[in-house]
Amino acid sequence: MAGVDGSLSAAPPSPTQSLEKQFDVFKAQLEESGTLRERIRHVVSEIESTTRVMYASLLLVHQSRPTPELLEKAKSQIDVLKGKYNQLAEILGEHPGQYYRYHGDWRSETQTVVSLLTLMHWLETGSLLEHNDAQEKLGLNGPEFSLDIEDYLVGVCFMSNELPRYVVNQVTAGDYDCSRKVLKFLTDLHAAFRMLNLRNDFLRKKFDGMKYDLRKVEEVYYDVKIRGLSSNGESVGDQGIEG
Amino acid sequence: MAGVDGSLSAAPPSPTQSLEKQFDVFKAQLEESGTLRERIRHVVSEIESTTRVMYASLLLVHQSRPTPELLEKAKSQIDVLKGKYNQLAEILGEHPGQYYRYHGDWRSETQTVVSLLTLMHWLETGSLLEHNDAQEKLGLNGPEFSLDIEDYLVGVCFMSNELPRYVVNQVTAGDYDCSRKVLKFLTDLHAAFRMLNLRNDFLRKKFDGMKYDLRKVEEVYYDVKIRGLSSNGESVGDQGIEG
Amino acid sequence: MAGVDGSLSAAPPSPTQSLEKQFDVFKAQLEESGTLRERIRHVVSEIESTTRVMYASLLLVHQSRPTPELLEKAKSQIDVLKGKYNQLAEILGEHPGQYYRYHGDWRSETQTVVSLLTLMHWLETGSLLEHNDAQEKLGLNGPEFSLDIEDYLVGVCFMSNELPRYVVNQVTAGDYDCSRKVLKFLTDLHAAFRMLNLRNDFLRKKFDGMKYDLRKVEEVYYDVKIRGLSSNGESVGDQGIEG
Amino acid sequence: MAGVDGSLSAAPPSPTQSLEKQFDVFKAQLEESGTLRERIRHVVSEIESTTRVMYASLLLVHQSRPTPELLEKAKSQIDVLKGKYNQLAEILGEHPGQYYRYHGDWRSETQTVVSLLTLMHWLETGSLLEHNDAQEKLGLNGPEFSLDIEDYLVGVCFMSNELPRYVVNQVTAGDYDCSRKVLKFLTDLHAAFRMLNLRNDFLRKKFDGMKYDLRKVEEVYYDVKIRGLSSNGESVGDQGIEG
């Protein structure tokens, strides 16, 4: 392998040396990627414990009507989340174009975050928190770090899973009209999802589950109507039965 | 390998002899451990058949209101259990520091024991049998042999799994208020568990199942309320239909 | 939800309309992403059939000494591959920052490509085709579309899997020295990989398999040496039997 | 639940309060156990990287005769390991009787440690490192923290797995007598293991694998003998064939 001409110039590296040099580079790069992953994981675990606190507050809506105080307590955590996503965005900002390389590391937690934000928003307004507004609440409106649409949609499905239980408890507590409102919302949401051409994947499976939420809420609304418990004049339902 | 100088001193053992001697020791120790396991297994199988007797008695609460006689019959077995755990403690007492070595051999049966004790206690008092009280009932308050907290908590989860069926049957039998009482108990229990930072293991999985128990009991309570069957007259329920 | 004051201003959209509008956007974006995936899949399937052609040519090295003609035939496909990767790069170039979003769609095929390129290079030179050189051969040296290091390393592991069979067949054909050369190469490669701190994932699993390749080649080299078949006359081998 | 006599004494805690208090205790205990596990895991990961360094050195015995220098390099890490096990013992020493509770957390790494120690010892002396000597090397001779016998035996099985490859490479390098020595050692070891009454578990499965190591070494010894390659006068084997 030494220079054929026997000149004084340095011999080229042997294959073994060249191999080792190559793998030194790989080692450095794999370690850099491992360190980055560690940093991401640290922030994500903080996001996760923040959502646990928010969820514990929001769970109380199953025991009573959602009071402004209860919502305020959960909402106070949104800025904490925003700070964490800001940290994530900074970390990823050092590695342009690698958002989707590490996306799997915060995906599931972000879906939970969306489910909480959309539930809170629905409790306050009765409508769906839009994708843009969710992004803004989390400060995810940069060009490099945004809220993946599929994650947003999975989060909305998770939020839908919470609604049947909410309706059952609210009706139990005497808020009969709640079933009508939730049914309207879920019916529209389900119809909107049906427009999407979903591939055969996780999102599709989650959406398939929404059908059961809708069915359960329909049954509660049926119970309320058949017993003439709906409070307001809009509903004419039970007349046929009672007449 | 014999002494090079041909002296009178005994030759050191050959590697083969030394190996055999070693393995004789291992054989003795593995057999001792095997015998110990056999003894534990024998007692545990008796614990298991005692819990089967208790469970058979307790199952009758699904068919009628829990009478004192029914509970007495199950309670009479507690002292049998205490005797068995005493035997276990004695066996393990001969092997200090090895409680957790063999723990897996009585773990699952002890979780069942806890589920039965806590169910009986709840039927009598409406509250959760505390860990210390469960230990005392089983005579497990020595320093060497106690009731592992995770086993206690898994047992409590198993007890929770029994409650939806109990509520359904009690309401069927006309005890409408039962659903409210169980719902209160389970809601508190679920909230208390949520405070724990559970690792992603068996206990966490069991706790995740408690959510379904809670949901089911909420639905029974909902049925009772919406039909105006709760005793306190709050609701007006089915009058439209029945009138 | 319409303006309460009945003014002339346009009514804000109802929640249902707003929901539909949102989902129209999602629909468009999911379809765009689906179309992109289709385009990628089309190119990848062409890469896949090109590698099948190359592999069919290279397989012939197991039947005879690798002739220049045989290698030329496989090498002639490299430019075809380069063209395909160029197409992929163009498609992805329209969607900056999304390389890793769709990476899974060409990953496995690219690992196969690397295994073929490194095998050809080894047959010609006896050394490992470096990452940079592999990139250059495929025209993957742009800033946006490059050869992922882990894919390169997995491809190298696949190439290693081919070597035991190659050695067996070459020795059978009388090229006894081949086992020594492959053993040297694989020993160095295995040692270099051991320096990497691999996470417990796909690459690690593939690397673990390299140990068996090494062991198998060692056994072939052993057979050659013990029979005195190696060219350099060191060994005296089978004389007792043959004499 | 308030005092029946209506006295001024403080009311007993409500069931909910009492439940919360209980779970506060559980939370603290689970967290303590979680923290302990973290500390153990930290030390164990250091043990693991030390064994990786040792293994990298020892692997070189496959490429050449084991020189004293090569063994010295690996042996220099034993004191590092001893220090780590000392840390483990200190951590567990704070929690008497809980060795086996956390045993699973260092089990697998300790089996690897034993495989390395016994391999080094065999390379130096040709005999099996005894259990007591292994304990002493690791400073594991305290009453509370010792080397579990089953872990020791599994480690010995792992060491046996390394021997066929070693024999193949040594014979290739011309050390024909190596096969006889390893065969003697493995035959004795296998016979000793056969004396043990192993339950149907992990250790039994590992021991079952030793049969293949023995078979492989027998085949190498056969190759050496049948070709008359064994160097010393002891072996009379081939006479029947050659005569």
UniProtKB/TrEMBL annotation, chains A, B, C, D:
One of its GO terms (cellular component) is cytoplasm. It is found in: Cytoplasm; Nucleus. One of its GO terms (molecular function) is RNA binding. It comes from the Eukaryota. Its main location: cytoplasm. The keyword S-adenosyl-L-methionine does not apply. Keywords: Cytoplasm, DNA-binding, Nucleus, RNA-binding. GO terms for biological process: RNA metabolic process. PANTHER family: TRANSLIN AND TRANSLIN ASSOCIATED PROTEIN X. Belongs to the translin family. This is Translin. It comes from Lotus japonicus.
